[in-house]
Amino acid sequence: MSLKVGLIGYGTIGKRVADAIMLQKDMELVGVTGHTYNYKMEVAKMKGIKIFAMSDKDEFAQICSTSTRDCIVPEGDVNNLLDEADIVVDCTPKKVGKENKEKYYLPRNMKAIFQGGEKHETAGVSFVAQCNYDEALGKNYVRVVSCNTTGLCRTLHPIEKHYGIDSVHATMVRRAADPWDIYHGPINAIVPVLELPSHHGPDVQTVLHNVNIFTTAMSVPTTIMHMHSLTVDMKKEASAEDILDLWKKTTRVRVVRNAEKVRSTAEIMEMAKDLDRIRGDMPEICVWEEGIGVKGKKLFYLQAIHQESDVVLENIDAIRAATGFKDGNKSIQMTNESMKVNGF
Amino acid sequence: MSLKVGLIGYGTIGKRVADAIMLQKDMELVGVTGHTYNYKMEVAKMKGIKIFAMSDKDEFAQICSTSTRDCIVPEGDVNNLLDEADIVVDCTPKKVGKENKEKYYLPRNMKAIFQGGEKHETAGVSFVAQCNYDEALGKNYVRVVSCNTTGLCRTLHPIEKHYGIDSVHATMVRRAADPWDIYHGPINAIVPVLELPSHHGPDVQTVLHNVNIFTTAMSVPTTIMHMHSLTVDMKKEASAEDILDLWKKTTRVRVVRNAEKVRSTAEIMEMAKDLDRIRGDMPEICVWEEGIGVKGKKLFYLQAIHQESDVVLENIDAIRAATGFKDGNKSIQMTNESMKVNGF
Amino acid sequence: MSLKVGLIGYGTIGKRVADAIMLQKDMELVGVTGHTYNYKMEVAKMKGIKIFAMSDKDEFAQICSTSTRDCIVPEGDVNNLLDEADIVVDCTPKKVGKENKEKYYLPRNMKAIFQGGEKHETAGVSFVAQCNYDEALGKNYVRVVSCNTTGLCRTLHPIEKHYGIDSVHATMVRRAADPWDIYHGPINAIVPVLELPSHHGPDVQTVLHNVNIFTTAMSVPTTIMHMHSLTVDMKKEASAEDILDLWKKTTRVRVVRNAEKVRSTAEIMEMAKDLDRIRGDMPEICVWEEGIGVKGKKLFYLQAIHQESDVVLENIDAIRAATGFKDGNKSIQMTNESMKVNGF
Amino acid sequence: MSLKVGLIGYGTIGKRVADAIMLQKDMELVGVTGHTYNYKMEVAKMKGIKIFAMSDKDEFAQICSTSTRDCIVPEGDVNNLLDEADIVVDCTPKKVGKENKEKYYLPRNMKAIFQGGEKHETAGVSFVAQCNYDEALGKNYVRVVSCNTTGLCRTLHPIEKHYGIDSVHATMVRRAADPWDIYHGPINAIVPVLELPSHHGPDVQTVLHNVNIFTTAMSVPTTIMHMHSLTVDMKKEASAEDILDLWKKTTRVRVVRNAEKVRSTAEIMEMAKDLDRIRGDMPEICVWEEGIGVKGKKLFYLQAIHQESDVVLENIDAIRAATGFKDGNKSIQMTNESMKVNGF
Question: Which of A136, A137, A167, C219 could disulfide-pair with A142, CB 3.0 to 4.6 Å?
């Protein structure tokens, strides 16, 4: 019998998680919440997704455009949605998840998956499937970490396991806005995060508890992917080939190659579109075969992160972990297969 | 029995036309040509598309990376591909189509579809399916016009038919490079085409023979869509509602709405990705419901063109027209349906 | 005896007008207002400009950084500034000028110059020096129109005078944010103004009362200049050379040339920096010699507008006009000379 | 008696060095070379700079536009320029300097200053004035290192001297094209340099011979400044305040402050324009007061580099060093004063 999943917050991540849930054989999407009328609501309706109002049913009998010509009649309100669900995925903006937990999920004693915008404490467990699936097993609340933290964990985890890590520094060059977002700049500048080291390092430690990591962050005028430059002081020596072999065997890490003319974040996303996945997403963390360097025990590498999609996989696995599905590797394989990830 | 189609030039347009051919019930893709090793070739191979070398078979026994580790063994050369094909679609860069015509298609007396980079004279017929399908019927050579010309023809054609056109001026604000293209700028400038009126006007007249049109063009630092600003001096008065109704009934024109929060080219492409078409393409010309203005007989409107995909539809219809499929409307409908265009 | 000028609002335009006032032999800058601590205030202090608090002297004894380490002690408040001034230039953001008029200038019966963000009605006279200097003569309130309107007026005015204008359409391709502004996007999109025709046309008519003009506007991801594409239906025929000759004789219009490798807005601004004016500004409206086209009575041209500086000249002339300096041409010449404009 | 300096290559760096030479009391600019007609030549002529043809006088009697309407008559050819000069600054593109050395400077036994595009071996001495002025004293050939290397040397040198350096890693986030350059992308992507560690590290060691430095580089779609993220393993502990104090006393390093609302490369360049230096340049390396972090002996910081101007200062000092001016500090002070650098 399939698991009934409710989804709160139908934005950049939420709409992807909704589609991913619909692709799982062991899950069923009860519906999603909406609170403003827009094209995302119209497309959801077209896809046959049930829409619930993120407020009282009476007040929001309709989700309408401000110009009021167009409306969507929701199936009910958020409580109706939660009534039908076994578990909920909360994809609302930063801090709203915590409010929803207190208002809706705690009183109902309902399991919930949160996103990286929430604090670790809100869930108690921070999660990257291939690193610490078991920590989330049977838990009421699980927090999928941010796209950047997920990316750092996926590539650092095997290095730590095989060669040991003394310390890591990552410079995170972030896309300043998502592709649809016309509101945020900069258009022609680099904007540093003036907190050194930045808060991203400690966030990695909520998953990889023993990795000594420092981070520096900045935003640049691009919309498609983040880029990380990493230096790792390893405990044991390894060659660039050793590291490459390790990542080739690591799930949800994709080795891309300049030899194939994948030279930039733009060509990664073009390749992703060619691969015919939903929305042309690239949920794997991409490392360049030609972008791995070793000097003694120092490892240097570059990785690209598709901020819109990498955590979608984690949300699916977190649902299984929280609801007691014991085999983490099996869950990862099921999710990968459904999303055409890593050779499927 | 299905039509065997060969494809020469597997780039931005070529790879899309190849996928579109594979979606047609009355067509079969014989294969595509390649001449450098890259991710597009690897993805084609993964999709089961036969690859032929764009040179002598002996010389190009393999299509290899310059770092020579990776190769693709082609099925044969371009002549082998053409031997098996009933018709060929040439998606090579500007001027190469003409060379290919003389070297390959003319000697074989083979039907060929060319792109807008070629001159009108190379084909003799320039083509936008919904405007002049019949002109291409049974012709040996048909030229699908450029993305910009296609966009202008699709929205102007019904205006001309219903209200008549005295003259048109279009300012074409062009994306400076395709999304994958990291080589071309500008990064922070507007670059005018210093030819006024520009050559785009006469190109429209190769399809809409009687429309008196002038054009001005410039490039801006964006990769996703062109935008056209048009002023039309109509022969008869029409209201903005009349024009809107006309376009709602026009195939391959999509009315987008600010009311749905589609406010920019970015949100159009985001919506296209949500619609789950291949590569997140938007082959329809997009006009804003709220972006139509009328003052007396003067009509003002804005349209957005997805430069990578609008002409893909035309290529499919041109194949049918050239090979004698008589019913243009039926062809358009078949193509639309296969590509999920306009409500399908 | 020199005219004492106060300046309210020390932002993008205000700081330039302040510097320009200091360059005039017949003017003296009393001081400027500030209300937040930032680098602009520090530079003003370094330049010896007196700073006044935009609030009560007691409340704002200091203009301090929110981190409170750094402060500037103002000379007094806005009332102290106005006490010493003969006339005020108000460079505050949209609508604040109107509030300031009612709160400060009207009660004091003080002459004031406003910017294009205010409505025409706030001043009663809208102003482009070379078009309607005399209209502003001796007036209490004068509104310098926006950078875009100023640009349209400067190049259209001589066309109207010499050849007559039936109608004009301008597509205004606007820089989405100023160079310093890291807050506004889009980063990779074109954002249309969904009002057709847009409000810019009627604004031109506040200066060129009889020009029948329609406008369409959009924003693009660049920070340095606006670009306008114009089509003019002239009453009399003129050749491209005639128009070029006309503009060569028109003040504050600069003919730039592709022959000199000035091919884009980027190269215009690079040339401006080479010319060693303050801030590398380009207050002249730039038209391309190679970007003028004529078909019968239809004229097509392209112009580039430096949004940060073109209106600075107008502010200086407006001060003279409002205070009764009768000779408009002489004022224009004095301003040009001080700012190294047009051959000085 | 003043030193006669010739300048070869009047591009982005060359035109700035020419202006800087003209500002020195102990130097005189003989002239510059040109080989294509453009606005830079026209502005040089307007500034009274003598122009020489970069070829035989007879062949290049004129430097003309390809459209041939406009020409500049040079004073002579490159040999005439060198005849009058005591020393030459070569600002030609990569590798041309080496050719010029062999063709012109060696045969004449003429002292020459080269730029960072040339290899270290071409000059034998690589130069950052405040790090190794004495190494260049009296040398025939001196190489001013690249903008990036200059930036790294200026801030690392005092750290090395006061606290010692075990190792450094720098991630260099580079502006992809200069402000005037409309030809190079990317428009919306991050392009990594797939060489790890990159060649920039060894280049630093041509100046700071004992610093163990590794570098990673990438390009991003901005035109105005590079940004470096550094991690330094120091030999001795130091607090963030210690480091800040050190840099406040370091010439050609400028501490910028978020407290003053200098939050990005855009606001740095806006402040530079307000400071009214030629072209709005910022030749100092900028570090953020709020962007220095220390954890034990690990130092993290961010710096911004104005790629067009930082090395201009070094060229002036290199002229003095090569011609035997013994007091490096005095030279630095003279240069700073003339260019309004560091409080002058």
Answer: A136
